[in-house]
Every structure is written in C-alpha cells, then in structure tokens.
C-alpha cells in the first residue's frame, strides 16, 4: 500500500481556502501514484470553534462531495482527516473515508475531546469505532487526542486492522510526545501507523508538523518537517503478518482480567 500524507497549513476559519488547498493536495498526491491520501484534523475550519454555527459543514455534505469527486477523478482512496460537521443541532469533529469510487466507507466522530483546545465546550463526543477496508486491507482511524487512550486503539486493533490512520492538529510544544505515543501505538498493536499533523498557527497554538509513517516494530519509515509538504511511503503489509507471527500478543491477551 502506497500512502501520501498531506501536511497542510490550515487557514483559520476559512473553509473556501481550505477546500481549495485540499483539492490541490490530492491532485499532487495522485501524481505520485499512491493508493491512499491522508489529510489532517479539522482541515475545513481549524479550531475556529466559536464560529462553528456559520463554518461547520452541514452533515458533512460539502466535504463528501469534494472527497467523492476527487477520489473518482484520481482513483485514490482518501482518509479525509477530519472536518467540523454540524448535525442534528450538534457539532462534531468527524473523519470521513471514501474509496476509489467515491463511496463513503466510514464516518467517525472523535471520541475523546481535548479540553485544552476547548473541544469539550463546543464539540459533541462520538460513540462508535472506526474500522474500514482500504482496497480489502483492514484499517482503522482515530483523531489526535485519541492516541493518548491506548485502550481505545487496542479495542479496535484486536479486530485485525493492519494500518492505523491518525489525523491531528498537534501543537509544537508537545511534538516529542506525538512521536513517542505513535511509536508505542504501532508497537503494541503490531500495525503500521500513518499519522498526519498540520503546520502553521492559529490564534492560540503553533503546529509543527512531523507527520509520520511508522512500521509495526516502531521504526520511523518516513517523517515530514515543520512546513507544508506532501510525503509518501510504501507499506509492506507482509511485515504485519511477520511481526504478529513472532510475538502473538493478540493471542496472549487476558481480556477477562482487563
């Protein structure tokens, strides 16, 4: 599986500018002949949470229309990062995943809200898992703060995904933890981790990128810098089979105790 990580500088509170740059990013990724394009968290609005009443995408319709069209046009799967979505009187931080035919594979509302960026005040927490196939490869997706909850990822990883996609707006000040947490999630779940962060700044935070691809042994396969860029990597999925065969942690679990 060949993946492209679109590390973007998100325009604060400007959906039109952000939709335009996502279109450009997917087009550039397609030129690299990739299977999957992955986007960062809240790319349509940034954390302009106080203005969600006018900025949030109504039921994700604009996002789905764009991602579906781009997926069909360039014949790529898109893990659509996440966007601010308005639905049934609530606002969600929602990941949308579409296949090469532009069909919706999954929609996931972020389960763990990050209080330091006021999500607990404006965003409604999700309640469901996020497992989906990418070209018949079992995969899963989580959003930013979710990675600090290993029990949440393990609950889903026990069901067999070989790739864990992560979309984030992770501030620069905590980037050392970003890398370590992602490596731990890869090692303990014996899966590839493909994690996309943003760059740039908003009124309250600076974001330093360092989007990562990590193999099932925790080795960094690819890493981005601190500027807007597109990086690619090829995942040798046979590595997952080999690692899980050597140390069968999923068989050796004692879920009756924890």
TrEMBL record:
Keywords assigned by UniProt, alphabetized: Hydrolase
Family: Belongs to the carbon-nitrogen hydrolase superfamily. NIT1/NIT2 family.
Name recorded for this polypeptide: Carbon-nitrogen family hydrolase
UniProt-listed Pfam families: CN_hydrolase
Entry-linked SUPFAM superfamilies: Carbon-nitrogen hydrolase (SSF56317)
Domain CN hydrolase, chain residue ranges per copy: 1-237
Species: Lactiplantibacillus plajomi
GO MF term set: hydrolase activity
């Amino acid at each position: 599986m060949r993946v492209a990580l679109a590390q973007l500088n998100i325009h604060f509170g400007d959906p039109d500018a952000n939709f335009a740059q996502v279109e450009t990013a997917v087009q550039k990724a397609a030129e690299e002949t990739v299977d999957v394009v992955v986007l960062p968290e809240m790319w349509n609005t940034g954390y302009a949470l106080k203005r969600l009443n006018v900025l949030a995408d109504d039921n994700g319709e604009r996002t789905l229309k764009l991602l579906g069209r781009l997926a069909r046009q360039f014949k790529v799967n898109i893990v659509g990062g996440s966007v601010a979505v308005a639905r049934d009187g609530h606002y969600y931080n929602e990941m949308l995943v579409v296949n090469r035919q532009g069909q919706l594979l999954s929609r996931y509302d972020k389960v763990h809200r990050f209080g330091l960026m006021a999500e607990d005040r404006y965003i409604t927490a999700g309640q469901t898992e996020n497992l989906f196939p990418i070209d018949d490869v079992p995969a899963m997706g989580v959003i930013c703060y979710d990675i600090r909850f290993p029990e949440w990822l393990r609950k889903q990883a026990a069901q067999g995904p070989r790739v864990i996609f992560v979309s984030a707006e992770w501030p620069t000040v905590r980037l050392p933890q970003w890398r370590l947490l992602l490596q731990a999630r890869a090692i303990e779940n014996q899966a590839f981790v493909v994690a996309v962060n943003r760059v740039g700044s908003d009124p309250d935070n600076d974001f330093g990128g360092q989007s990562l691809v990590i193999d099932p042994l925790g080795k960094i396969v690819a890493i981005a810098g601190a500027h807007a860029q597109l990086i690619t990597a090829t995942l040798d999925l046979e590595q997952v089979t080999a690692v899980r065969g050597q140390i069968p942690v999923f068989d050796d679990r004692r879920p009756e105790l924890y």
